[in-house]
Amino acid sequence: MSEQPRSTKSRPYRKAKRAADEMRTRTRIVDAAEALHGTLGPSRTSVSAIAERAAVTRATLYRHFPDAESLFLACSSQWLSRQQLPDPDSWTVHTDPVERLRAGLAEIYRYYRGGEQMIALIHRDADAIPPGVRANGLAAEQRWLNTLLDPFPGRRRKKVQAAVAHAAEFSTWRSLCLTQGLSERSAIELIVGMVTVACGGDQHPT
User: Fold this and answer.
1) How far, in Å, are 25, 85, 115, 159 from residue 119 at the CA level?
2) In angstroms, rounded to a whole number, what is the distance separating the alpha carbons of residues 79 and 136?
């Protein structure tokens, strides 16, 4: 008679332990994918390599992540949660277009420097990124661009849009700050001058 109550009481414990074990396994898989994407790049990271690094079988990996997109989304979300991401809402306190551009680019370039290795590999291997994950990244970048452009006179002109879009690109930051060795501040001032010219001199750096 005493066995039944003990068995009943142990079920919640076993369920909780199983759930905790499953979460730890899932975390190991995501950690392994993030580490390999950040060192080898997505296109050179195989499912087998992720499973081996996480110390799980391929079957276990697929049980947690049945397709590439679900694993990429988990990996991307985890990596992004560890970054100091640009906050376009905070830029809107600057109504002057040049000051908003400076503030926005300072955050974007800081983010690029902090995540340079991963971002470079993601750009290199863009074709290997699942469409849903790529769409999320493009949507975030478009929001940055829209917020930067909003106060500019002539913002609908193709030249102005091109200048601001070029300013916010990872490749621009990398060229100016890594290849040419400029500080972020110097790079931003150079970009401000370029955008001012694109606007026809309507806005001057202060």
Assistant:
1) 26, 13, 6, 27
2) 14
Q: How distant, in Å, are the alpha carbons of 31, 45, 64, 126, 184 from that of 28?
A: 5, 15, 11, 24, 36
Asked if residue 104 lies in contact with residue 146, where contact means CB atoms within 8 angstroms, the answer is no
CA 153/CA 25 separation, integer angstroms: 53
| Whole-number Cα distances in Å, 182 to 70, 113, 163, 177, 178 | 38, 12, 19, 5, 7
| pLDDT tens digit sequence for 102-142 | 999 999 999 999 999 999 999 999 999 999 899 999 999 99
- How does 111-138 read in b/e, with b if 16+ C-beta sit within 10 Å? bbeebeebbbbbeebeebbbeebbebbe
Q: How many separate helices (H) and strands (E) can be counted in the chain?
A: 11, 0
- 64-82 confidence digits (pLDDT tens): 999 999 999 999 999 999 9
Find, among 48, 52, 25, 49, the residue nearest to 39 by Cα.
Answer: 49
Burial of 44 (0-12, 13-18, 19+ CB in 10 A): middle
Q: Annotate 191-200 with b (16+ C-beta within 10 A) or e (fewer).
A: bbeebbebbe
